[in-house]
Amino acid sequence: MPELPREDPEPTEITPSAGSERQYPEREFTVKARTQTQLVLRRFLQHRLAVVSVFVLLAVILLAFVGGPLWKYSYTDITPDNSVPPSGNHPFGTDNLGYDEFARVLRGTQRSLEIAFSVAVLATAIGTVWGAVAGYYRGWLDSLMMRIADLFLTIPILAAGALLSHHFQTAGWWALALVIAGLAWPAVARIVRGQTLSLREKEYVEAARSMGAKDGRIIFRHILPNVIGQIIVVVTIQIAFAILLESSLSYLGFGVQPPDTSLGALISNAQSALQGGLWWLFYFPGIFIILISLSVNFIGDGLRDAFDPSQQRVRA
Amino acid sequence: MLAFALRRLLVSIPVFILSTFLVFLLVTWGADPLAQLEAKNPPPSQAVINQLADQLYINHSIPARYWHWFSQLFFHGNWGPSVQSGTDIGQLLSTSLTLTARLVIVATILAVILAIIAGVVSATRQYSKTDYTITLIGFLFLSLPVFWFAILLKQAVVNMNNSLNWYWLSTYGANTPGLTGWSAFSDAIGHLVLPTIVLAMSSYASWSRFQRASMLDVLGSDYMRLARAKGLSRRQVMIRHGLRTALIPLTTQVALDTAAILGGAVLTESVFGWQGMGTMLVNGINAGDFNVILAWLTVSAIIVIVFNLIADLLYGVLDPRIRHA
Amino acid sequence: MSGTTRRPLRRRWVAMCASVVTGLLLAGCGGSNSGSGSGGSDTSISGTAAADTFNSGTPKQGGSVTWTIEKTMDNWNILSADGNTFDYAQVVNPLTPSPYIFNPSYSVTLNTDLMVSADETSTSPQTVVYKIQPNAVWSDGTPINADDFIYNWQVQNGTDANIAAATTTGYQDITSVTGSDNGKTVTTVYKTPFGDWKSLFTNMYPAHIAKEHGNNEASFNWFQTNPLPVSGGPFVVSSVSGDKTSVILKRNTKYYGKQSPLDQLTFRAITDASQEPTALQNREVDGIYPQPQTTLVNQLKGMGSQITYKIDAGLGFEHIDFNLKNSALGNATWGKTLRTAMFTATDRNAILTKTIQQFQSSAVPLNSRMLVPGQNGYQDNVTQFGLGEGNTAKAEQLLTSAGFKNVGAGKGGLEAPDGTKIPTFQMKYTVGNQIRLDTCSLFASEMAQLGINVAVTPTDNLGATLTQTGGNGYDIVVFAWVNTPFPSSANQPLYTTGGGGNYGGYSNKNVDAWLAAAASSTDTATQISNLNKADQQISQDAYTLPLYQKPTLIAFYPNLVNVRDNATSMGPTYNAGQWGLKS
């Protein structure tokens, strides 16, 4: 196995049908060719911060979803300890009503992650299909679909989110996630469309078309798998974006409402806690937001480098 | 070029009109202008409620309401009545816009300058300690909730003021009432510093990453090597060929980010108690003030569309490789 | 009277009865007392004589003070439904004359700067004669006279449907307002007796300015959007910022009473209460009056002797209400037993411990719906009926002996004596109000002990929930009423059959009669005895349970004198004309 990293051609173009890594064409080289996945993984592993971030993120997710239910206090438990600083019994202290801040932060993290992942998955799914269809068919359909996407881009998401989530205040977190996703997809659609436009002219797409493949099959089997790199990067951006947007909305009072809580809502309630000496109420939820968002951003950066190594080459 | 500009302008008009319709639907769905009045205690009489409903024209079908609003606005320059007492929407818009523009413009300039410096330094010293530090800071700001940072900053400044017994830097509002002349000016600057830093930092983070990437792109290109080969100094190459080319994507990115900057301004204003566009929106939503929210979203749509247009045009002007028929 | 609106951090309740006065009477109540030192205190003094002299002293001449309000100055007419807001009243107080002052001790005293006398000269028909000081003038020199009384009566008596006045209470009972003696004597005659006549004619707007702006309706609206061009109080409007976030008042040099020591009084709007301590600490304002909250109070404590703060028990109070329109709660045969058992199991002390006692250790449960401690005639009308003591055993016993089945937790749910299954009750609180949410959570867990299910859900429209309009409604609700120094007229609509604020549909003929007697009587003793009789009956019927007085919080720099809390609807600026800086 040669250990030196290869100078790759554009990685998204090397496989005629990247959907299946196993069917790799015969090559004349004696060395075993690496699959796309292997290449990406190799490059990703070189990004040390990104690798660390994966572990951090996994740890946070585990803590929130597994640790939360296991922890001795629930986020709704009113403990007899009011406003106590962090201790063995209350690792993150308690607030003035006796809520265990650790339980609340875990619950908040859970909510924030649920919202962020739902937004990312929904917005990416809608945006990907929308962008791919527009880019593949081009012409008037493309114009129409992209103008519609443009329409959504003229509305600042924070404003529309605030307007609508106010309406949904009593409906719960999923309504909030729906609203954010409903406004975030056009950004994804733009990126996917751009990629599709160039991919649809490739020979292997022509070939598939001439063999009578249906449009749907071409889009989903031949084009989208080759955009997967960009899409994954977009997903990470969306997650980081949604975490911050949710916290912003909660800060303004338009997000998750009690008795439920989120990281943004926790900070919003702890605004004056910092000066009031209850620093733990302010710092812990903030640190969790930063942990999640920072690790997601680093993972995104690592993935970008892995899927598109051109940025690592410097010749000047 | 002119033809392209005109064509883009013409396309923008229907986009704008449809955008106002979408916004209108959003607001009809999201805001109940009668809620506040109905919630009053003692409850107002049905006649008073009906009177407001009439004024707001809300007992009609949505297309009729939309047309009423649209024609009032574009043929009569009338934003419609507000349900918040004593509020004239046109007047509110102009004072809010002026205030927010002050904040946004200063912050954007600051963010762009910082982003360029950081991006260039980072790219030219790729993988150096400097690069790592700048990158880390960039990522940190990218991942920070704006308001969290703002609250920390505010508290730090208050503590500093208290220990210095010097209260130039302010944490609330855009100015101290009742000052004139030089002291008013100095006071306004003292109020501007903190929100500007906060707003600038949130844009700086993504722009510095962006600038670094496009700088790397340019540095790796053949013409850069050619310029070096011609015997130009490293500095000359950097500035004249490298930076100039690498600025094009950033310029358009800044224009495209307008909507996000407006969103950031809403948060910043909320933390620092500025009575600008952000406060106008938040108050409008809390009061279910239909026409105020509508006015806000319409103005922001205009701003976003205009800046998208500018981004498109700039791209054509700045990048000689793009020629428009 | 008003339900507290949502998001307690950012709003304050709308003041009731549009009753605000400029007070200038109490100057020179001796030297400063121990209460005026810096640092903080949460010993309640409101309603006692000490409240009237807190932080009193002799100010030096000159200086400027910046006070905080929590809304931008969008409406200048506090008599209007739209403008009837506590914060606006703070600004309008020093600009408009009132015959009576509502003091921090809850006493109501004649404003002798403005009035020579005000007397009830006859009870049948009820007649009140006001004599105005001969030198009392508006700041443009126009005398304050009967025209002003007539104008303020006409716009608030409800005869013109186009005028959206905040309240018509009392004014609608007046038949005529006539002037004599060059307008300096005003005679008001009532068609129906109105006991709380001293609450009327507070914050009078100038009739001669109104005349310049059309008919009553037009001028009433004009006053909403325009700062008062003249003043009948110690200050006069100097400027208003374009964004309405600040109002600068200057000393009214034509003032007929004692001149204000301050040259300038600035009001600044800070619309987010949680930011007020920071602005205070950064010397951007000199004083604040936010709704207290643990973290906010901690923040003030952190400033140590740099500032003075005072936490006091206010006139507003939180309470839990049942909706008797619910078929179980309002059941004619066993509903009362059920309600009594539920309130018996409610532990008010537990609620207090978790909520306001965190920052006001002296807080105690409130035992009256009609009056608060410090008000004349306050007495415990609650505990003798066992309500609010958190006695689950007694509650269970009540239910069991009345024939209820499945009493207690985990027995499959309570059943009424006639076999009806007690349904899950919907308990509502204002969205985002953590303290009310916790009150509801505690209540729900106590009810679970009895085998009663209570589902706690937020409402984002308390008004609609209370009035049960537009698909909203409640079975149990927790919210606040704000008392006034005039309990008779204020409480009548809340518990009278079909009354405007009687959202839960309570009806008792005796209560109706007692409340009517209190409202029409001008004798304090009669008023009080009737109110207490009604209160006891309501306790016996277990319709509502008062929880605690909402605390108030005032904080300012110690160099300010004569600045003090006033828990009545007049608020701290009731004596703004006496405010000054320490010499």
From TrEMBL, chain A:
<feature type="region of interest" description="Disordered">
    <location>
        <begin position="1"/>
        <end position="24"/>
    </location>
</feature>
<dbReference type="GO" id="GO:0055085">
    <property type="term" value="P:transmembrane transport"/>
</dbReference>
<dbReference type="Pfam" id="PF12911">
    <property type="entry name" value="OppC_N"/>
</dbReference>
<feature type="transmembrane region" description="Helical">
    <location>
        <begin position="115"/>
        <end position="137"/>
    </location>
</feature>
<feature type="transmembrane region" description="Helical">
    <location>
        <begin position="223"/>
        <end position="245"/>
    </location>
</feature>
<feature type="transmembrane region" description="Helical">
    <location>
        <begin position="278"/>
        <end position="299"/>
    </location>
</feature>
<dbReference type="InterPro" id="IPR050366">
    <property type="entry name" value="BP-dependent_transpt_permease"/>
</dbReference>
<comment type="similarity">
    <text>Belongs to the binding-protein-dependent transport system permease family.</text>
</comment>
<feature type="transmembrane region" description="Helical">
    <location>
        <begin position="49"/>
        <end position="71"/>
    </location>
</feature>
<dbReference type="InterPro" id="IPR025966">
    <property type="entry name" value="OppC_N"/>
</dbReference>
<feature type="transmembrane region" description="Helical">
    <location>
        <begin position="144"/>
        <end position="165"/>
    </location>
</feature>
<feature type="domain" description="ABC transmembrane type-1">
    <location>
        <begin position="109"/>
        <end position="300"/>
    </location>
</feature>
<dbReference type="InterPro" id="IPR000515">
    <property type="entry name" value="MetI-like"/>
</dbReference>
<dbReference type="GO" id="GO:0005886">
    <property type="term" value="C:plasma membrane"/>
</dbReference>
<keyword id="KW-0813">Transport</keyword>
From TrEMBL, chain B:
<keyword id="KW-1133">Transmembrane helix</keyword>
<dbReference type="Pfam" id="PF19300">
    <property type="entry name" value="BPD_transp_1_N"/>
</dbReference>
<feature type="transmembrane region" description="Helical">
    <location>
        <begin position="294"/>
        <end position="318"/>
    </location>
</feature>
<feature type="transmembrane region" description="Helical">
    <location>
        <begin position="99"/>
        <end position="121"/>
    </location>
</feature>
<dbReference type="InterPro" id="IPR035906">
    <property type="entry name" value="MetI-like_sf"/>
</dbReference>
<dbReference type="Pfam" id="PF00528">
    <property type="entry name" value="BPD_transp_1"/>
</dbReference>
<comment type="similarity">
    <text>Belongs to the binding-protein-dependent transport system permease family.</text>
</comment>
<feature type="transmembrane region" description="Helical">
    <location>
        <begin position="9"/>
        <end position="31"/>
    </location>
</feature>
<feature type="domain" description="ABC transmembrane type-1">
    <location>
        <begin position="97"/>
        <end position="315"/>
    </location>
</feature>
<dbReference type="GO" id="GO:0055085">
    <property type="term" value="P:transmembrane transport"/>
</dbReference>
<keyword id="KW-0813">Transport</keyword>
<dbReference type="InterPro" id="IPR045621">
    <property type="entry name" value="BPD_transp_1_N"/>
</dbReference>
<keyword id="KW-0472">Membrane</keyword>
<keyword id="KW-1003">Cell membrane</keyword>
<dbReference type="InterPro" id="IPR000515">
    <property type="entry name" value="MetI-like"/>
</dbReference>
TrEMBL record, chain C:
<dbReference type="InterPro" id="IPR000914">
    <property type="entry name" value="SBP_5_dom"/>
</dbReference>
<protein>
    <submittedName>
        <fullName>ABC transporter family substrate-binding protein</fullName>
    </submittedName>
</protein>
<dbReference type="InterPro" id="IPR030678">
    <property type="entry name" value="Peptide/Ni-bd"/>
</dbReference>
<dbReference type="GO" id="GO:0043190">
    <property type="term" value="C:ATP-binding cassette (ABC) transporter complex"/>
</dbReference>
<keyword id="KW-0732">Signal</keyword>
<feature type="signal peptide">
    <location>
        <begin position="1"/>
        <end position="27"/>
    </location>
</feature>
<dbReference type="GO" id="GO:1904680">
    <property type="term" value="F:peptide transmembrane transporter activity"/>
</dbReference>
<dbReference type="GO" id="GO:0042597">
    <property type="term" value="C:periplasmic space"/>
</dbReference>
<dbReference type="GO" id="GO:0015833">
    <property type="term" value="P:peptide transport"/>
</dbReference>
<dbReference type="InterPro" id="IPR039424">
    <property type="entry name" value="SBP_5"/>
</dbReference>
<feature type="domain" description="Solute-binding protein family 5">
    <location>
        <begin position="114"/>
        <end position="500"/>
    </location>
</feature>
<dbReference type="Pfam" id="PF00496">
    <property type="entry name" value="SBP_bac_5"/>
</dbReference>
